[in-house]
Amino acid sequence: MTSHATRVLVLNSGSSSVKYQLLDMRDGARLAAGLVERIGEASSRLVHTPLAGPDAATAGKKRERTEPIADHAAALEAVAAELARDGLGLDSPELAAIGHRVVHGGLRFSEPTVVDDEVLAEIERLVPVAPLHNPANLTGIRTAQALRPDLPQVAVFDTAFHTTMPEHAARYAIDVATADAHRIRRYGFHGTSHAYVSRRTAELLGKDPSEVNVIVLHLGNGASASAVEGGRCVDTSMGLTPLEGLVMGTRSGDIDPAVTFHLKRVAGMSVDEIDELLNKKSGLVGLCGDNDMREIRRRVDEGDPAARLAFDIYIHRLRKYIGAYSAVLGRVDAVVFTAGVGENAAPVREAAVAGLETLGLAVDAGLNAVRSDEPRVISPADSRVVVAVVPTDEELEIAQQTFALVGDVRTPIA
Ligand SMILES: Nc1ncnc2c1ncn2[C@@H]1O[C@H](COP(=O)(O)OP(=O)(O)O)[C@@H](O)[C@H]1O
Ligand SMILES: CC(=O)OP(=O)(O)O
Ligand SMILES: [Mg+2]
Asked: What molecular function does GO assign, one term (predicted)?
Protein backbone atom coordinates (compact mmCIF):
# COMPACT_ATOMS: atom_id res chain seq x y z
CA MET A 1 0.00 0.00 0.00
CA THR A 2 1.28 3.48 -0.80
CA SER A 3 1.24 6.00 2.01
CA HIS A 4 0.98 9.75 1.71
CA ALA A 5 2.14 12.78 3.67
CA THR A 6 -1.21 13.96 4.97
CA ARG A 7 -0.41 15.34 8.42
CA VAL A 8 -0.03 18.96 9.44
CA LEU A 9 1.40 20.21 12.72
CA VAL A 10 -0.03 23.60 13.74
CA LEU A 11 1.75 25.93 16.15
CA ASN A 12 -0.10 28.84 17.73
CA SER A 13 2.65 30.67 19.62
CA GLY A 14 1.45 33.39 21.98
CA SER A 15 3.41 35.78 24.16
CA SER A 16 3.85 33.23 26.96
CA SER A 17 2.30 30.08 25.57
CA VAL A 18 2.28 27.67 22.65
CA LYS A 19 -0.86 25.80 21.64
CA TYR A 20 -0.42 23.00 19.12
CA GLN A 21 -2.32 20.32 17.25
CA LEU A 22 -1.28 17.52 14.93
CA LEU A 23 -4.00 16.78 12.38
CA ASP A 24 -4.55 14.27 9.61
CA MET A 25 -5.91 16.25 6.67
CA ARG A 26 -7.62 13.32 4.97
CA ASP A 27 -10.48 13.78 7.44
CA GLY A 28 -9.30 16.60 9.75
CA ALA A 29 -8.85 14.13 12.65
CA ARG A 30 -6.79 15.38 15.57
CA LEU A 31 -3.91 13.03 16.39
CA ALA A 32 -2.51 15.06 19.28
CA ALA A 33 -3.14 18.39 20.95
CA GLY A 34 -1.55 20.35 23.72
CA LEU A 35 -0.39 23.53 25.33
CA VAL A 36 2.75 24.90 26.94
CA GLU A 37 1.99 27.82 29.23
CA ARG A 38 3.88 30.22 31.51
CA ILE A 39 6.96 29.99 29.26
CA GLY A 40 9.89 31.79 30.88
CA GLU A 41 8.57 31.22 34.41
CA ALA A 42 9.73 28.63 36.96
CA SER A 43 6.29 26.99 36.90
CA SER A 44 5.96 26.38 33.13
CA ARG A 45 3.46 23.65 32.36
CA LEU A 46 3.12 21.33 29.39
CA VAL A 47 -0.17 19.52 28.86
CA HIS A 48 -0.10 16.97 26.05
CA THR A 49 -2.85 14.64 24.87
CA PRO A 50 -2.20 12.00 22.21
CA LEU A 51 -5.52 11.24 20.55
CA ALA A 52 -4.40 8.58 18.12
CA GLY A 53 -1.15 7.04 16.95
CA PRO A 54 0.67 3.72 16.88
CA ASP A 55 0.49 3.31 20.66
CA ALA A 56 -3.20 2.71 21.36
CA ALA A 57 -2.48 2.37 25.09
CA THR A 58 -1.58 6.07 25.47
CA ALA A 59 -4.35 7.49 23.21
CA GLY A 60 -6.68 9.87 25.00
CA LYS A 61 -4.51 9.94 28.16
CA LYS A 62 -3.51 13.47 29.08
CA ARG A 63 0.08 13.98 30.30
CA GLU A 64 1.18 17.01 32.33
CA ARG A 65 4.65 18.23 33.20
CA THR A 66 5.47 21.24 35.36
CA GLU A 67 9.08 22.33 34.96
CA PRO A 68 10.92 25.50 34.00
CA ILE A 69 10.78 26.05 30.20
CA ALA A 70 12.98 29.04 29.48
CA ASP A 71 11.78 30.19 26.06
CA HIS A 72 9.70 29.33 23.00
CA ALA A 73 12.52 27.31 21.42
CA ALA A 74 12.74 25.09 24.51
CA ALA A 75 8.93 24.81 24.53
CA LEU A 76 8.89 23.51 20.98
CA GLU A 77 11.62 20.99 21.68
CA ALA A 78 9.59 19.72 24.65
CA VAL A 79 6.51 19.42 22.39
CA ALA A 80 8.55 17.51 19.77
CA ALA A 81 9.75 15.10 22.48
CA GLU A 82 6.19 14.47 23.71
CA LEU A 83 4.97 13.79 20.16
CA ALA A 84 7.90 11.39 19.61
CA ARG A 85 6.90 9.39 22.72
CA ASP A 86 3.60 8.57 21.01
CA GLY A 87 5.19 7.61 17.69
CA LEU A 88 3.98 10.94 16.23
CA GLY A 89 7.41 12.60 16.09
CA LEU A 90 8.41 15.43 13.78
CA ASP A 91 10.65 13.00 11.89
CA SER A 92 7.55 11.23 10.52
CA PRO A 93 7.43 10.96 6.71
CA GLU A 94 3.68 11.44 7.03
CA LEU A 95 4.14 15.07 8.07
CA ALA A 96 3.38 17.28 5.04
CA ALA A 97 3.92 20.74 6.53
CA ILE A 98 4.00 22.85 9.66
CA GLY A 99 1.45 25.65 9.86
CA HIS A 100 2.11 28.70 12.04
CA ARG A 101 -0.23 31.36 13.36
CA VAL A 102 1.44 34.71 12.67
CA VAL A 103 -0.34 37.64 14.26
CA HIS A 104 0.72 40.63 12.16
CA GLY A 105 1.04 40.36 8.38
CA GLY A 106 0.89 44.10 7.66
CA LEU A 107 -0.23 45.21 4.20
CA ARG A 108 1.70 42.51 2.43
CA PHE A 109 0.09 39.22 3.46
CA SER A 110 -3.57 38.53 2.76
CA GLU A 111 -3.13 34.81 2.05
CA PRO A 112 -1.38 31.86 3.72
CA THR A 113 2.27 32.03 2.67
CA VAL A 114 5.15 29.54 2.45
CA VAL A 115 7.91 30.94 4.63
CA ASP A 116 11.27 31.83 3.10
CA ASP A 117 14.00 34.22 4.29
CA GLU A 118 12.23 37.21 2.80
CA VAL A 119 8.92 36.36 4.47
CA LEU A 120 10.75 35.93 7.79
CA ALA A 121 12.34 39.37 7.35
CA GLU A 122 8.92 40.95 6.75
CA ILE A 123 7.42 39.28 9.87
CA GLU A 124 10.45 40.61 11.78
CA ARG A 125 9.90 44.13 10.40
CA LEU A 126 6.37 44.03 11.86
CA VAL A 127 7.54 43.27 15.43
CA PRO A 128 7.00 46.88 16.61
CA VAL A 129 3.27 46.59 15.75
CA ALA A 130 2.81 43.17 17.38
CA PRO A 131 5.43 43.20 20.12
CA LEU A 132 3.77 40.52 22.26
CA HIS A 133 3.13 38.15 19.37
CA ASN A 134 5.35 38.34 16.27
CA PRO A 135 8.61 37.56 18.16
CA ALA A 136 7.05 34.35 19.53
CA ASN A 137 5.71 33.45 16.06
CA LEU A 138 9.21 33.94 14.59
CA THR A 139 10.83 31.71 17.20
CA GLY A 140 8.21 29.06 16.48
CA ILE A 141 8.98 29.14 12.76
CA ARG A 142 12.77 29.15 13.20
CA THR A 143 12.71 26.28 15.70
CA ALA A 144 10.43 24.23 13.45
CA GLN A 145 12.72 24.94 10.47
CA ALA A 146 15.71 23.69 12.47
CA LEU A 147 13.85 20.49 13.39
CA ARG A 148 12.54 19.81 9.85
CA PRO A 149 14.46 21.94 7.30
CA ASP A 150 12.98 19.90 4.43
CA LEU A 151 9.33 20.67 5.23
CA PRO A 152 7.29 23.66 4.04
CA GLN A 153 6.56 26.06 6.91
CA VAL A 154 3.37 28.00 6.21
CA ALA A 155 2.45 31.29 7.89
CA VAL A 156 -1.29 31.98 8.37
CA PHE A 157 -1.87 35.59 9.35
CA ASP A 158 -4.36 36.94 11.93
CA THR A 159 -4.68 40.08 9.81
CA ALA A 160 -5.55 38.32 6.53
CA PHE A 161 -9.34 38.05 6.97
CA HIS A 162 -9.58 41.77 7.70
CA THR A 163 -7.93 42.95 4.49
CA THR A 164 -11.42 43.23 2.95
CA MET A 165 -12.30 46.13 5.28
CA PRO A 166 -13.31 49.21 3.29
CA GLU A 167 -11.03 52.25 3.54
CA HIS A 168 -13.57 54.15 5.64
CA ALA A 169 -13.29 51.44 8.33
CA ALA A 170 -9.55 50.76 7.99
CA ARG A 171 -8.29 54.38 7.99
CA TYR A 172 -7.77 56.51 11.07
CA ALA A 173 -8.78 60.15 10.73
CA ILE A 174 -5.20 61.41 10.89
CA ASP A 175 -2.98 63.21 8.40
CA VAL A 176 -2.93 61.00 5.30
CA ALA A 177 0.72 61.61 4.38
CA THR A 178 1.91 60.67 7.87
CA ALA A 179 -0.36 57.61 7.97
CA ASP A 180 0.82 56.42 4.55
CA ALA A 181 4.51 57.03 5.25
CA HIS A 182 4.32 54.80 8.33
CA ARG A 183 1.60 52.38 7.16
CA ILE A 184 -0.60 53.46 10.06
CA ARG A 185 -4.07 52.00 9.60
CA ARG A 186 -6.38 49.47 11.23
CA TYR A 187 -5.32 45.91 10.41
CA GLY A 188 -7.41 43.84 12.85
CA PHE A 189 -6.44 40.50 14.42
CA HIS A 190 -7.86 37.08 15.39
CA GLY A 191 -8.88 36.93 11.72
CA THR A 192 -8.49 33.15 11.45
CA SER A 193 -10.99 32.82 14.29
CA HIS A 194 -13.41 35.43 12.89
CA ALA A 195 -13.31 33.68 9.50
CA TYR A 196 -13.84 30.20 10.91
CA VAL A 197 -16.58 31.21 13.36
CA SER A 198 -18.53 33.33 10.86
CA ARG A 199 -18.48 30.44 8.38
CA ARG A 200 -19.59 27.91 11.03
CA THR A 201 -22.37 30.30 12.04
CA ALA A 202 -23.70 30.33 8.47
CA GLU A 203 -23.69 26.51 8.61
CA LEU A 204 -25.55 26.61 11.93
CA LEU A 205 -28.20 28.82 10.27
CA GLY A 206 -28.34 26.49 7.26
CA LYS A 207 -27.25 29.27 4.90
CA ASP A 208 -24.36 30.09 2.62
CA PRO A 209 -21.85 32.56 4.17
CA SER A 210 -22.65 35.01 1.35
CA GLU A 211 -26.23 35.26 2.66
CA VAL A 212 -25.59 36.15 6.30
CA ASN A 213 -24.43 39.15 8.32
CA VAL A 214 -22.75 38.22 11.59
CA ILE A 215 -21.23 40.01 14.56
CA VAL A 216 -18.46 37.79 15.96
CA LEU A 217 -17.29 38.40 19.53
CA HIS A 218 -13.94 36.64 20.06
CA LEU A 219 -13.46 36.89 23.82
CA GLY A 220 -10.25 35.18 24.93
CA ASN A 221 -7.35 36.71 26.81
CA GLY A 222 -7.06 39.03 23.84
CA ALA A 223 -10.53 40.03 22.64
CA SER A 224 -11.98 41.50 19.46
CA ALA A 225 -15.29 42.01 17.70
CA SER A 226 -15.91 41.92 13.98
CA ALA A 227 -18.72 42.79 11.59
CA VAL A 228 -18.91 40.20 8.80
CA GLU A 229 -21.16 40.97 5.83
CA GLY A 230 -21.85 38.09 3.46
CA GLY A 231 -18.64 36.33 4.50
CA ARG A 232 -16.40 39.42 4.23
CA CYS A 233 -15.09 41.43 7.16
CA VAL A 234 -16.27 45.05 7.00
CA ASP A 235 -15.08 46.25 10.42
CA THR A 236 -13.19 44.96 13.44
CA SER A 237 -12.27 46.37 16.83
CA MET A 238 -8.49 45.90 16.87
CA GLY A 239 -6.36 48.40 14.98
CA LEU A 240 -2.73 49.05 14.08
CA THR A 241 -1.91 46.71 16.96
CA PRO A 242 -3.95 44.27 19.09
CA LEU A 243 -4.39 46.98 21.74
CA GLU A 244 -7.45 48.78 20.37
CA GLY A 245 -11.08 47.90 21.01
CA LEU A 246 -12.59 45.72 23.71
CA VAL A 247 -11.43 45.49 27.32
CA MET A 248 -9.09 42.45 27.47
CA GLY A 249 -7.34 40.34 30.09
CA THR A 250 -4.37 42.69 30.39
CA ARG A 251 -4.97 45.30 27.63
CA SER A 252 -6.98 48.52 27.97
CA GLY A 253 -8.65 48.47 24.56
CA ASP A 254 -9.98 51.89 23.45
CA ILE A 255 -8.71 54.94 25.33
CA ASP A 256 -8.29 58.60 24.44
CA PRO A 257 -4.80 58.71 22.80
CA ALA A 258 -4.14 61.85 24.86
CA VAL A 259 -3.93 59.58 27.94
CA THR A 260 -0.51 58.56 26.61
CA PHE A 261 0.70 62.19 26.27
CA HIS A 262 -0.54 62.85 29.79
CA LEU A 263 1.26 59.80 31.20
CA LYS A 264 4.47 61.01 29.53
CA ARG A 265 4.29 64.74 30.19
CA VAL A 266 2.56 64.81 33.56
CA ALA A 267 3.16 61.38 35.11
CA GLY A 268 6.76 61.27 33.75
CA MET A 269 6.52 57.75 32.33
CA SER A 270 8.69 56.60 29.42
CA VAL A 271 7.14 55.35 26.20
CA ASP A 272 8.20 51.79 27.07
CA GLU A 273 6.57 52.09 30.49
CA ILE A 274 3.34 53.34 28.93
CA ASP A 275 3.42 50.51 26.39
CA GLU A 276 3.82 47.99 29.22
CA LEU A 277 1.07 49.67 31.28
CA LEU A 278 -1.50 49.57 28.48
CA ASN A 279 -0.61 46.12 27.12
CA LYS A 280 0.20 44.15 30.24
CA LYS A 281 -1.09 45.95 33.34
CA SER A 282 -4.46 47.24 32.16
CA GLY A 283 -7.76 45.65 31.15
CA LEU A 284 -9.27 43.29 33.71
CA VAL A 285 -5.97 42.75 35.53
CA GLY A 286 -5.43 46.50 35.89
CA LEU A 287 -8.97 47.05 37.13
CA CYS A 288 -9.20 44.26 39.70
CA GLY A 289 -5.93 42.29 39.82
CA ASP A 290 -7.31 39.23 37.99
CA ASN A 291 -7.50 38.53 34.27
CA ASP A 292 -9.25 35.19 34.44
CA MET A 293 -13.00 35.58 33.99
CA ARG A 294 -13.67 32.52 36.17
CA GLU A 295 -11.93 34.20 39.11
CA ILE A 296 -13.64 37.54 38.42
CA ARG A 297 -17.08 35.90 38.40
CA ARG A 298 -16.28 34.10 41.66
CA ARG A 299 -15.35 37.43 43.24
CA VAL A 300 -18.44 39.16 41.80
CA ASP A 301 -20.62 36.44 43.34
CA GLU A 302 -18.94 37.11 46.70
CA GLY A 303 -19.77 40.81 46.40
CA ASP A 304 -16.25 42.11 45.63
CA PRO A 305 -16.67 45.72 44.37
CA ALA A 306 -13.45 45.90 42.30
CA ALA A 307 -14.34 42.70 40.44
CA ARG A 308 -17.90 44.00 39.93
CA LEU A 309 -16.64 47.26 38.42
CA ALA A 310 -14.14 45.42 36.18
CA PHE A 311 -16.94 43.14 34.94
CA ASP A 312 -19.26 46.09 34.33
CA ILE A 313 -16.61 48.01 32.34
CA TYR A 314 -15.88 44.89 30.27
CA ILE A 315 -19.59 44.40 29.51
CA HIS A 316 -20.26 48.09 28.79
CA ARG A 317 -17.53 48.13 26.12
CA LEU A 318 -18.81 44.90 24.59
CA ARG A 319 -22.35 46.29 24.35
CA LYS A 320 -21.06 49.44 22.65
CA TYR A 321 -19.45 47.32 19.93
CA ILE A 322 -22.59 45.21 19.48
CA GLY A 323 -24.54 48.42 18.96
CA ALA A 324 -21.92 49.92 16.67
CA TYR A 325 -21.70 46.84 14.46
CA SER A 326 -25.50 46.54 14.30
CA ALA A 327 -25.39 50.01 12.74
CA VAL A 328 -22.44 49.12 10.47
CA LEU A 329 -24.23 46.02 9.14
CA GLY A 330 -27.77 47.41 9.04
CA ARG A 331 -29.26 43.91 9.04
CA VAL A 332 -27.81 41.47 11.57
CA ASP A 333 -28.61 37.75 11.31
CA ALA A 334 -26.52 36.50 14.23
CA VAL A 335 -24.42 37.65 17.17
CA VAL A 336 -21.92 34.94 18.06
CA PHE A 337 -19.75 34.38 21.11
CA THR A 338 -16.45 32.49 20.87
CA ALA A 339 -13.02 31.84 22.52
CA GLY A 340 -12.36 31.06 26.20
CA VAL A 341 -14.69 33.65 27.76
CA GLY A 342 -17.28 33.69 24.97
CA GLU A 343 -17.63 29.90 24.93
CA ASN A 344 -17.69 29.36 28.68
CA ALA A 345 -18.92 32.43 30.55
CA ALA A 346 -22.75 32.39 30.47
CA PRO A 347 -22.98 35.54 32.68
CA VAL A 348 -20.92 37.50 30.13
CA ARG A 349 -23.24 36.45 27.29
CA GLU A 350 -26.35 37.24 29.31
CA ALA A 351 -25.12 40.69 30.37
CA ALA A 352 -23.83 41.56 26.88
CA VAL A 353 -27.28 41.41 25.29
CA ALA A 354 -29.57 42.12 28.27
CA GLY A 355 -32.16 44.75 27.39
CA LEU A 356 -31.16 44.91 23.71
CA GLU A 357 -34.56 43.70 22.42
CA THR A 358 -34.75 46.84 20.30
CA LEU A 359 -31.76 45.46 18.37
CA GLY A 360 -33.60 42.13 18.06
CA LEU A 361 -31.38 40.46 20.66
CA ALA A 362 -32.36 38.12 23.48
CA VAL A 363 -30.90 35.15 25.34
CA ASP A 364 -32.86 32.19 26.69
CA ALA A 365 -31.58 31.53 30.24
CA GLY A 366 -31.97 27.76 29.94
CA LEU A 367 -30.17 27.51 26.59
CA ASN A 368 -27.46 29.91 27.78
CA ALA A 369 -26.72 27.67 30.78
CA VAL A 370 -26.07 24.57 28.63
CA ARG A 371 -22.38 23.56 28.51
CA SER A 372 -21.28 21.98 25.25
CA ASP A 373 -18.40 21.94 22.76
CA GLU A 374 -20.85 22.13 19.86
CA PRO A 375 -22.08 25.25 18.03
CA ARG A 376 -25.44 26.16 19.57
CA VAL A 377 -28.20 28.76 19.50
CA ILE A 378 -28.92 30.45 22.87
CA SER A 379 -31.66 32.88 21.79
CA PRO A 380 -35.38 32.07 22.06
CA ALA A 381 -37.05 30.64 18.95
CA ASP A 382 -38.88 33.93 18.22
CA SER A 383 -35.74 36.10 18.48
CA ARG A 384 -35.27 38.36 15.41
CA VAL A 385 -31.49 37.92 15.60
CA VAL A 386 -29.95 34.55 16.44
CA VAL A 387 -27.58 34.67 19.41
CA ALA A 388 -25.19 31.71 19.34
CA VAL A 389 -22.08 30.16 20.84
CA VAL A 390 -19.72 28.77 18.20
CA PRO A 391 -16.44 27.33 19.54
CA THR A 392 -13.47 28.59 17.57
CA ASP A 393 -10.80 26.26 16.16
CA GLU A 394 -7.93 28.39 14.93
CA GLU A 395 -5.69 25.31 14.71
CA LEU A 396 -8.05 23.40 12.38
CA GLU A 397 -8.48 26.48 10.18
CA ILE A 398 -4.68 27.01 10.01
CA ALA A 399 -4.17 23.31 9.18
CA GLN A 400 -6.73 23.47 6.38
CA GLN A 401 -5.24 26.63 4.89
CA THR A 402 -1.73 25.15 5.19
CA PHE A 403 -2.67 21.87 3.55
CA ALA A 404 -4.64 23.60 0.81
CA LEU A 405 -1.47 25.53 -0.06
CA VAL A 406 1.20 22.82 0.08
CA GLY A 407 -0.42 19.44 0.71
CA ASP A 408 -1.32 16.84 -1.82
CA VAL A 409 -3.04 13.68 -0.67
CA ARG A 410 -2.07 12.03 -3.94
CA THR A 411 1.71 12.45 -3.57
CA PRO A 412 3.16 9.18 -2.26
CA ILE A 413 5.90 9.35 0.35
CA ALA A 414 9.28 8.88 -1.34
N1 LIG B 1 -15.24 28.28 32.39
C2 LIG B 1 -14.85 29.54 32.14
N3 LIG B 1 -15.57 30.58 32.58
C4 LIG B 1 -15.19 31.84 32.34
N5 LIG B 1 -14.08 32.17 31.65
C6 LIG B 1 -13.32 31.16 31.20
C7 LIG B 1 -13.66 29.80 31.40
N8 LIG B 1 -12.71 29.05 30.81
C9 LIG B 1 -11.81 29.90 30.26
N10 LIG B 1 -12.18 31.18 30.49
C11 LIG B 1 -11.48 32.39 30.09
O12 LIG B 1 -10.86 32.21 28.84
C13 LIG B 1 -9.61 32.92 28.82
C14 LIG B 1 -8.67 32.29 27.83
O15 LIG B 1 -9.29 32.23 26.58
P16 LIG B 1 -8.51 31.69 25.30
O17 LIG B 1 -9.43 31.84 24.15
O18 LIG B 1 -7.94 30.36 25.59
O19 LIG B 1 -7.41 32.81 25.24
P20 LIG B 1 -6.03 32.98 24.50
O21 LIG B 1 -6.11 32.15 23.24
O22 LIG B 1 -6.00 34.43 24.23
O23 LIG B 1 -5.00 32.51 25.47
C24 LIG B 1 -9.13 32.84 30.27
O25 LIG B 1 -8.37 33.96 30.60
C26 LIG B 1 -10.41 32.80 31.06
O27 LIG B 1 -10.70 34.11 31.49
C1 LIG C 1 -3.92 39.18 18.48
C2 LIG C 1 -4.20 38.74 19.86
O3 LIG C 1 -4.62 39.51 20.68
O4 LIG C 1 -4.00 37.44 20.12
P5 LIG C 1 -4.17 36.70 21.53
O6 LIG C 1 -5.62 36.79 21.89
O7 LIG C 1 -3.75 35.28 21.23
O8 LIG C 1 -3.29 37.39 22.52
MG1 LIG D 1 -6.40 33.00 21.38
From this structure: acetate kinase activity
